[in-house]
Amino acid sequence: MKVIVLGSGAMGCLFGAAFHRAGAEVTLVDVNADHVDAINADGLKVDLRSGEETLPIRAALPADVSEAADLVMVFTKTFHTAAALEGISAAIGDDTHLLSLQNGLGNDRRLADFVAEERVMVGASMLPSDLVGHGHIRSHGEGYSKLYPAFGDDTAMATRVADLLTQGGLETVLDAKIHEGIWSKAIFNATMNPLCALTRRTPGFLGANPQSRATIRAAVAEGIAAAHANGVMLDGQPIYDLTEVSMTDHADHEPSMLQDIHAGRRTEVDAINGAIVTAAKEAGVEAPVLETLWNLMKLEEAKLA
Ligand SMILES: NC(=O)C1=CN([C@@H]2O[C@H](COP(=O)(O)OP(=O)(O)OC[C@H]3O[C@@H](n4cnc5c(N)ncnc54)[C@H](OP(=O)(O)O)[C@@H]3O)[C@@H](O)[C@H]2O)C=CC1
Ligand SMILES: CC(C)(CO)C(=O)C(=O)O
């Protein structure tokens, strides 16, 4: 399978490496020329709990992509998705499928602007990953990923993709209730990511303090109510469980929002907290804790500007 990973930062490189191990023909596409050059010159360095490896994967700038791919896996930040797909229009042919495991709500519609709905797949990943330097990522945490067609039930391509990722070392399952899974992950991120970004601390710190634990419970409860009000009848308990896993197994991982603040970059809070709070209000429900976390993160972004 010809795979393009579009946005080859922390997560894109992790998933690109799995496709490569499974024998797919992978191109890591990114706008960061130094990162692309480092991968082409020295290989992609992947630091896992099980050890470090260097993989000879091809990397390219968007302008150098000239052939259609079977799969484009989008791993830019959500606010870069549209520009990134426009930048590789040569890669999107009549049979190309698009996949997003990006955080937040609304990734299905963002991809459906570029291909027919039946070729859009979405999902979520609980794996952590950090960009250590040019051509070098680290992922020290367990977790699995789930995906499914966003708008239908033809699972042929989704099955091939999940099998390749699992074969390449990243356990991936199909989940017919993928929209519940995406909402659950978004509620988790809307709670944990801003709290870590605002305190400049990792999940282990949140676990050790009663104030953060109380805020986590309140924020998750609001997210569950927002989902239910929108007809997404997810089970809330697994989200509380995920926060516990995060505070223990991912105790030292910087959530992507904290990584962004440390790097002086815009965060994805609009697609995460903003999308949940907006959906809640549209359904007649308030989500004051999630909204306050959203507002505080917008102030952090304003400080960066
Ligand atoms: N990191 C994590 O642990 C997890 C992240 N996620 C989600 O995965 C997604 C990716 O996150 P993450 O890997 O951390 O992000 P990164 O910032 O590490 O990687 C995104 C990459 O996309 C590049 N990019 C930006 N614009 C374009 C473009 N037009 N064309 C090609 N590449 C582009 C960025 O370059 P530049 O930096 O120069 O803008 C960057 O290298 C997000 O939605 C995040 O929420 C989900 C689970 C875990
Ligand atoms: C790694 C994980 C699952 C939790 O921090 C994440 O989604 C993020 O960092 O944004």
Automatic annotation (TrEMBL):
What Gene Ontology biological process does one annotation of this record name? pantothenate biosynthetic process
Pathway(s) this gene product operates in, as recorded in its UniProt entry? Cofactor biosynthesis; (R)-pantothenate biosynthesis; (R)-pantoate from 3-methyl-2-oxobutanoate: step 2/2
The Gene Ontology CC terms held by the record are: cytoplasm
NAD as a keyword?
no
Gene3D superfamilies in alphabetical order: N-(1-d-carboxylethyl)-l-norvaline Dehydrogenase, domain 2, NAD(P)-binding Rossmann-like Domain
- Which intervals hold domain Ketopantoate reductase N-terminal? 3-145
Chain ranges of the Ketopantoate reductase C-terminal domain: 178-299
| GO MF term set | 2-dehydropantoate 2-reductase activity
Q: What class of enzyme is it?
A: oxidoreductase
Q: Which reaction does it catalyse?
A: (R)-pantoate + NADP(+) = 2-dehydropantoate + NADPH + H(+)
Note the SUPFAM superfamilies from the entry. Answer: 6-phosphogluconate dehydrogenase C-terminal domain-like (SSF48179), NAD(P)-binding Rossmann-fold domains (SSF51735)
Keyword annotations from UniProtKB, A to Z = NADP, Oxidoreductase, Pantothenate biosynthesis
EC id: 1.1.1.169
The record ties this protein, via Pfam families, to: ApbA (PF02558), ApbA_C (PF08546)
The protein's role, per its UniProt record: Catalyzes the NADPH-dependent reduction of ketopantoate into pantoic acid.
Q: Which family does it belong to?
A: Belongs to the ketopantoate reductase family.
- What protein am I looking at? 2-dehydropantoate 2-reductase
